[in-house]
Amino acid sequence: MNFNNQVAVVTGGAAGIGKSCCLGLAKRGATVIILDKNEDGAKAVAEEIMAAGGVAEGFALDIANVAQIRELVDLIEKKYSKIDILINCAGITQVVKVEDLTEFDWDLMLDIDLKGTFFMSQAVLDVMKKNRFGKIVNIGSVAGEVGGIVVGANYVAAKAGVIGLSKSLAKSAAPYGINVNTVSPGFIDTEMTKTLNQDVNLVPLGRKGTAEEVSDVILFLCSDYARYLTGVNLDVNGGLHMN
């Protein structure tokens, strides 16, 4: 895979799957814009990329703030004239019983995991349409496909929403030569999932996945190899969920 001369934007790029995407894109020639609520983390990833000879910038972004999304996307477009790739990795998870779920929990989860994914995609699509090219990959979850006991119903609803949203965006963007797809991880070993009670005995391959194993699939979807894939949800879960 080669991303030379491409500009890639990754939300939630300071850690986990997002960081792995940033490093993988930079290694393959992309200019990488790292957006994260953790500004220091975003800048640290950018510095790591630049130390290895790549090109990157890190910015703070509250993904639930639509005005801030628009401002940053405008800034990126003015500086680089285009955005070729958007990977929406920003997200949170929560372990909470249905009977204990509050309105605050519900709104916070959907604001970050679903609303943020939509409005970031909407803003970047405006840029991509001008060039009639682009790749967008959103992050779903096996929980959004089968329901969840390990995670809260608010997380399940948000991720199910992301999977459906991606299909809608894919239909809207297709006439402009833009591909929109989803990757749905299962039990993945990241900082965000360390507090979850994930029973690897349920996984046919017998282990948790790594951030790199998910990012490899994401980068495939961003590459020319996946030029005829759009509206697809790829499961990366070691066989945890089989249709």
Could you give a short description of this structure?
By secondary structure, the protein is an alpha/beta fold. The protein is built from seven helices and seven strands; from the N terminus they run βαβαβαβαβααβαβ. Strand 1 (7-11), helix 1 (16-27) and strand 2 (31-36) form a beta-alpha-beta unit.
* Percentage of residues in strands: 15-25%
Portion in helices: 40-55%
Number of helices: 7
Order of helices and strands: EHEHEHEHEHHEHE
Q: Please state the second-level CATH architecture.
A: 3-Layer(aba) Sandwich
Shape: globular
CATH class: Alpha Beta
List the helices and strands and how they pair.
Blueprint: E1 7-11, H1 16-27, E2 31-36, H2 39-51, E3 55-60, H3 66-80, E4 85-88, H4 103-131, E5 134-139, H5 143-146, H6 153-173, E6 178-185, H7 211-222, E7 233-236
Parallel strand pairs: 1-2, 1-4, 2-3, 4-5, 5-6, 6-7
Helix pairs in contact: 1-7, 3-4, 4-6
